[in-house]
Amino acid sequence: MSITTALFQHHKYCDEIFADAEEACANADWEAGAAAFQLLRGQLETHFSSEEELLFPAFEAASGMTSGPTEVMRGEHRQMRDLLAQMQGAISSRDSDAFGGAAETLLILMQQHNMKEENILYPMCDDHLRSSDIGAALAERLKQA
């Protein structure tokens, strides 16, 4: 198992929760939508934090790249957090159109972001960290997070 396998799998789980939240809010089922959205927001924050606090610093230390791909990913995390805040506001005001617009933008951003991580950054992280002493411990910490 690679160091980043747990993160890759977590992308898929977040995609499923996203679909549940989007469907419920589109159908004005605000109770189910709010519950699914809170789960999504919590899971995304856990995911972002795992990368920002564990994976990215380890990769930067091992590779010496501090202003490269990890900085781009941090910027995209900020954009996604902003969209999540917009979506929360739309749920609070029960505004299906506002929720749908922010959700559509978030979905596109998440798809692009996940592709970059899964096809570029995660393989780079695995290559740089696999042979290091931190690799196995990091994989376990990411799996637990």
Element order: H for helix, E for strand: HHHHH
Structural domain tally? 1
Helix count, DSSP H or I runs of 4 or more residues: 5
Strand composition percent: under 5%
Low-confidence stretches: none
Work out the number of β strands.
0
Give the assembly state of these chains: single chain
Classification by helices and strands: mainly alpha
Distance between the termini: 16 Å
What best-fitting shape do the alpha-carbon axes yield?
elongated
Q: What's the CATH topology name?
A: Four Helix Bundle (Hemerythrin (Met), subunit A)
Radius of gyration over alpha carbons? 16 Å
Mean pLDDT comes to 92
Tell me the CATH superfamily.
Answer: nmb1532 protein domain like
Q: What kind of sheet is the major sheet?
A: none
CATH class, please?
Answer: Mainly Alpha
Any overview of this molecule?
The chain is an all-alpha fold. The chain has a single domain, classed as Four Helix Bundle (Hemerythrin (Met), subunit A) (Up-down Bundle). Helices cover 86% and strands 0% of the residues. The chain has five helices and no strands. α1 runs antiparallel to α2 (30-63), α2 runs parallel beside α4 (96-129) and α3 runs antiparallel to α4. It starts with a helix and ends with a helix. The model has no long low-confidence stretch (mean pLDDT 92).
What is the element layout, followed by pairings?
Layout: H1 5-26, H2 30-63, H3 69-92, H4 96-129, H5 134-144
